[in-house]
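Worked Example 4.2. Read the sequence first, then its structure tokens.
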Amino acid sequence: MKTYLAKPNEVPKKWYVIDATGKPLGRLAAKIAVILRGKHKPQFTPNVDTGDYVIVVNAEKVVLTGKKLDKDGYRYHTKYPGGLKFIPYRRLLEKHPEKAIEIAVRGMLPKNRLRDRFMRKLKVYRGPNHPHAAQKPEVLEI
């Protein structure tokens, strides 16, 4: 028996809605990364995009446990000498909570050519409303 390798057009894509209210950021991001990659499907193939679309609502209500709000944060470098920038999660969640989820999910995806394709299938919204009702997304409890 040969190993099954999925083709990109063979795997049906579904839409899921996840409510981030009261969910820890890391656990939420890990579950989202699994769905975006398609690892929850039996047809999973590592080099093919077999994942589903994910809509995250109520991004402003995601939580961080312990002292991570002040101690941890988002680091980036401007490519200039001494250009290491640090934004604490408290400030990031106040101004751009959707970006905090996107950064966490991006870090949990493989660092290859498929990562940008996976990230395009992630839609994050600050409040409870989203414009994707036409896709008939399923509510996914995490």
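Now turn to a second chain, presented in exactly the same format:
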Amino acid sequence: MDVVINLLIWVHVIGFIAGGSNSVVGPVIGGRMATATPDQRVGYFGVMNTLSQVGKVAMVALLITGPLIMFMKYGGLGGASVWFWIKMALVAVMLAAIIYGGIQFKRYQGGDAEAQKRADAAHKITGLAFLGVLLSAVFAFG
């Protein structure tokens, strides 16, 4: 059973890395959009759309492996600390910001220039929440 749990933790960490990369790369690309040529913008949109797909897969992996790890390794949520619940609240913030940011980014791709500002704000919220998730996870499980 330990091997299965360790593999689930491994997949969970990969999900952190894959999803977290969006929190770094997204704002960098977003910052270049204002001065990008139309051709560059098409390329940036392509990269962001690919990152979005990777992020969705990563989030699904995290949402599946997290509960499995909790139940298989810890026997459920009974012993979950306040740090665990802080982590989960921040995961909810991330999920909401990711969904909202994705909607706004699609609107921006469709020509709504104001949507870029909202998407950028959502990226920043996602990034901050991600850092909080990692920090609270260290305290919850460290």
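Notes for the reader: The chain is about 90% helix and 0% strand. The CA atoms of residues 20 and 131 lie 9 Å apart.
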